[in-house]
Design a protein that fits this description.
Helix content is 28%, strand content 32%. With 190 residues, it is α+β, with helices and mostly antiparallel strands. The chain binds coenzyme A.
C-alpha cells in the first residue's frame, strides 16, 4: 500500500516557475480560472460563481492534503506570486500506487509551454517521492492541447469511453491516458 506524506509542503521549481501551496489569498485567481469559459470548456464541472465557492474549494483541498488524499500546487512565475494555474494529484488509489493528474492554466498564459514545464517536477514528485507506479489523466477527446501535452510527456491513450460523463445536460465521451513508471526504476513492497 502506498504511504504518502505531503508535509512539509513540497515547493517545486523550474526555470520560470514556482509551484507552491494554494492559500486563501488565491481565492480570486481560483475564481477567475474556474469561472472562465475557455478553461472550463473541457472540465465537466460547474463553473464557479463566487469567491466563497473558491474559498470552499481551497478548504476542501487543504483537508485532502492534511489527510494525504491529494495535493494541488499553485503555478506562479518566479518573482510574481500570482496564481496562473493549478496542477496536482487527486483520486489517489493507494492500493494500486496510482493517481489522477489534473491541471488548469489561465488562458493569458496558455501556449507558452508553461504547463509542459510544470509537468516535469510534478511527474518526478509523483514517481520519486509519492512512489506512484502509474499516473492517469481523464480527457475530453476534443481537448487537443491537453492531449498533446500528455503525449509529449509520454502518456499513452489506454481507453476510450463513450458518453460516460454527464455534464450540463449532455453525455460526453472521455479518453483515459496514462503514464506507467519504468519497472526498473521502482523498488516497492506490499
Ligand atoms: C491544457 C492546458 C493545461 C495546456 O497548457 P499550456 O501551457 O497552454 O500547454 P503548452 O504551452 O505546454 O503546450 C501544449 C501543447 O499543445 C499544443 N496545442 C495547443 N493547442 C492545440 C490545439 N488546438 N491542437 C493541437 N495542439 C495544440 C501546443 O502547440 C503544445 O505542443 P508543442 O509544444 O508541441 O507545440 C491549457 O490549455 C489549459 O489549461 N486548458 C484548460 C483546462 C484543461 O483543459 N485542462 C486539462 C483537463 S484534462
Amino acid at each position: 500500500m502506498l504511504e504518502v506524506t505531503f508535509l512539509p509542503f513540497p515547493l517545486l521549481y523550474t526555470q520560470r516557475l514556482v509551484l507552491r501551496q494554494i492559500t486563501r489569498q488565491d481565492a480570486k485567481e481560483i475564481l477567475n480560472l474556474r469561472s472562465n469559459d475557455l478553461v472550463m470548456q473541457f472540465i465537466g464541472r460547474p463553473k464557479m460563481t463566487s469567491v466563497q465557492e473558491a474559498e470552499s474549494w481551497i478548504e476542501k483541498f487543504d483537508i485532502s492534503l492534511a489527510q494525504q488524499e491529494g495535493i494541488n500546487w499553485a503555478i506562479s512565475l518566479k518573482g510574481n506570486n500570482t496564481l496562473l494555474g493549478t496542477i496536482g494529484f487527486w483520486r489517489l488509489e493507494k492500493e494500486h500506487f496510482r493517481a489522477e493528474i489534473g491541471y488548469l492554466l489561465n488562458p493569458d498564459f496558455q501556449g507558452k509551454g508553461i504547463m509542459n514545464e510544470a509537468f516535469e517536477p510534478v511527474l518526478n514528485y509523483g514517481f520519486e517521492k509519492m512512489k506512484l507506479h502509474s499516473i492517469m489523466a481523464n480527457v475530453y477527446p476534443e481537448n487537443k492541447s491537453s492531449i498533446r501535452l500528455l503525449e509529449k510527456n509520454g502518456f499513452q491513450q489506454e481507453g476510450y469511453f463513450r458518453e460516460n460523463y454527464f455534464h450540463d445536460g449532455v453525455f460526453t465521451d472521455t479518453s483515459v491516458f496514462s503514464l506507467v513508471m519504468d519497472n526498473a526504476d521502482q523498488n516497492i513492497t506490499n
